[in-house]
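Weekly structure sync, notes
Attendees: PL, DS, HV (note-taker this week)

Item 1: 2-dehydropantoate 2-reductase
DS walked through the input record. Source organism listed as Paenibacillus eucommiae. Sequence as pasted into the shared doc:
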Amino acid sequence: MHIAIVGAGSLGLLFAAKLSSVATSIEVITRTGMQAEVLRREGISIEKEEVVPASKFTIVSYEDKESKSGEEAVESPLDFLLLTVKQTAIDDELLSWIRNRISKKTTVVCFQNGVGHEEKLLGCIHADQLLLAVTTEGAKRSGASKVAHTGRGTTDLGFSRDVLPKEQLNTQKIFAGLLEKAGFAVSLSKNMNTKVWSKLIISSVINPLTAILQIQNGQLLHSSASQELMLDLYQEGMTVAKAKHIELPDDLWEKLQLVCEKTAENQSSMLQDLLHHRSTEIESINGSLLRMAEQLKLELPVNRSIYRIVRVLENK
Ligand SMILES: NC(=O)C1=CN([C@@H]2O[C@H](COP(=O)(O)OP(=O)(O)OC[C@H]3O[C@@H](n4cnc5c(N)ncnc54)[C@H](OP(=O)(O)O)[C@@H]3O)[C@@H](O)[C@H]2O)C=CC1
Ligand SMILES: CC(C)(CO)C(=O)C(=O)O
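Item 1 (cont.): predicted structure, written out as tokens:
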């Protein structure tokens, strides 16, 4: 199996390192030439676990114009392209690069939290080629070539479209098999919309609150005031989901609290982004809920305020 991983951040480094033992070839595409050089020298280390030598990967950088050529697709056709960049990095240039890099036989697997990426990708590839992955694995990059596996979870996998030809179901199983062999827990899903929306609602509560309050995920449960804020955001998100007839589990509120407990000592990705002066995924999480609410003529006052505060903090 020939796999390319676009985005050598927290999730990308973890999946590249783990999949290197089960794939025929792994191409890692970094954003910068500088990170590519470090990876070519040092390989990838998963803290407290293993160091995977650089010889296991082909490393190219997106900055390097040579690697943007579609010719490589002919030389080494990809079975899977894993997209592990943030929502904010998915722009027209990257989409056009992906279109050139893949062939009709390639399946793109996207790991983003929030919503928006699926629509963008469907603008450039066929639905039969797009696998959605919603993962509760936790990864945190601590250097150009170092990553910590901060939490073990499950990866839900499913195609963007509900009704699928047999061949696609087979592709889904092949990719799930690779992940399992690499040590990840996987669950195949026929209803990814429910998975995507469950994670969207959970992220719309935990991420902005931990980012604004500058606390670890578990600390959200420590005060009744923060729990009230959580409930306000949760209920607003659920109002949008209901208006859009999205099927969600009855115990999503309990699941949300469980995520806080299970990831109690983690900093959410939004808090990490703010602390590192990076833009956050607020647009694809609370921003997208607000845009949907506007179309549905619904008011989400708590989401609106929280969204504005995060935007202010991003520009500080
Ligand atoms: N980390 C986690 O535990 C989880 C993350 N997710 C989701 O997965 C996605 C990725 O998250 P995460 O890994 O944490 O994010 P990171 O910010 O750690 O990694 C994103 C990587 O993408 C790189 N990148 C940006 N643009 C390009 C480009 N054009 N070409 C190649 N690489 C590029 C960045 O490079 P540079 O650093 O040089 O800017 C960075 O290394 C997010 O949507 C997140 O919500 C979902 C579940 C868990
Ligand atoms: C906090 C958590 C687990 C849920 O929103 C997360 O996925 C993140 O940090 O982005």
